[in-house]
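Tutorial, part two.
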Amino acid sequence: MTAEGETPNGVPPQAEKPMPEASSYSWYVLVVLVVVYILNFIDRQILSILAVDIKADLGLTDADMGFLGGAAFAVFYALFGIPLGRLADNWSRVKLLSVGLALWSIMTALSGFARNQAELTMARMGVGVGEATASPTAYSLISDYFPKRQRATALAIYSSGLYIGGGVSLFLGALIVETWDAAYPQGGPLGLVGWHAAFVAVGIPGILVGLWVSTLREPVRGAMDGLATPAHPAPFRTFASDLSMIVPPFTLWGAWQRGPTALALNLATGAGIAVFAYTMIQLTGNLPQWSAVGFGYYAVFSWASTLRAKDPATFRLIWGTPAFICTTIGYGLVALAAYALAFWSAPYAETVLGLPKKELAGILGASGALSGFLGVIAGGAFADRLRKKNPAGRILVIILGVLGPIIPIGIGYTTDNATLFYIMNFVAGMLGATALGAAAATTQDLVLPRMRGTATAAFFLGTTLVGLSFGPYMVGQISDLAGSMVDGKLVGNLRVGILSLIAVAPIALALLIAAYRSVPQAERTIVERARAAGEPV
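Running the prediction step on this input gives:
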């Protein structure tokens, strides 16, 4: 017999390590981050409800508007997310988010003073740079405030700000335009018309929210996973080095430092991308779109090459992990359809169905916010439950986000019945939104704590350089190609443009099936593969 409290060997048993819990302050931080993300998407998506007015005022095509709603923002959002994601790994995430919020809010307000496509493009690029701070900092903070078993739920709640902000942006934009134009039918102070005033009005509040964010406490990095990580000794030196990875001609100098072979490969890749971009410019006639995309993909290659040389463990767990790549690109194609619908649904309803701006903004805004919120919360919770039974269970939820919207899109964008259009748009948005929390949590779980900001940046490369760069533009370009000339002006066919989104589903499904098969082993071998790449874990 053994004494009470002893093992059969007479040794007192070790006390079980208590499971970490999210505190009430954790939930408070999450609320603040949701508010930030709401502002993020108000500033990002308000262009949608203003698109018809901007297009008429500046004389643009659907492809031009697709570029402004996509690549003009997305390329700089994605690229600066790389060094800013690393800065989030090495510096105060609270300070970084505060500065970024102030920057993108100022650039949104400056969009209201644009008088041509070039000026509006520059402002949208600035918004992209500022907003690049948001998700790397937020994802990293959430991962240090919530334990792994609650992480997909917390990330899904954070992501609900995407849909709330997108919905609110439609309502606010329509309200401001209507009110301003009624008060100043010939243009108001400084020559501002309604769409100008809308940008200014939604940009200013973000500066005040940035002060609120600055009051948050910075958590101990990695403590929630039992892998507390010390502060980086020189975060801004690393940031400057990372920035040089993506900005030519510094990219060539960095490649030369790694040797003649690396320089030759960099030059060859840059030349290949330039040829591709030139070919697409000749085919489409859209110089800004393909110049931005070409620049973006070259910069990503340069960054990944440098990361491989300087931080092989992080490279191995991100770029060298098929599960991570397939999950990211697979979800990126889900995002392609989601971003395209978010941008074009309001212009479609206004121009194809002939619905009044204020009515459609209220209905699409409210339904978009509700459908996105319900979808992302339910998808995150369901993904966490599936993961308890199956390490790859979250991938099934991402697959739902691919297949679920197909029928609603097919019905909603072929009917002339406004009510059926609104209902199908709601269903498509809700089903597509289920994938986000699952995809984000999967990529976070495939890296070490110190790599989460960089992993978030890589994840958002998929959602932006694949999804946002091409979704709005693809619809606009196909709309123009399927359009016709009316009174000497090109009138696009948005119905054909939006229905073309269904064609990306088979590609996304194939990638996610590959991710489903590879995620369990990839997660089991994180530490082993990091050590093999030189990580002192």
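DSSP finds 24 helices and two strands in the chain. In part three we will examine how such features are distributed along the chain.
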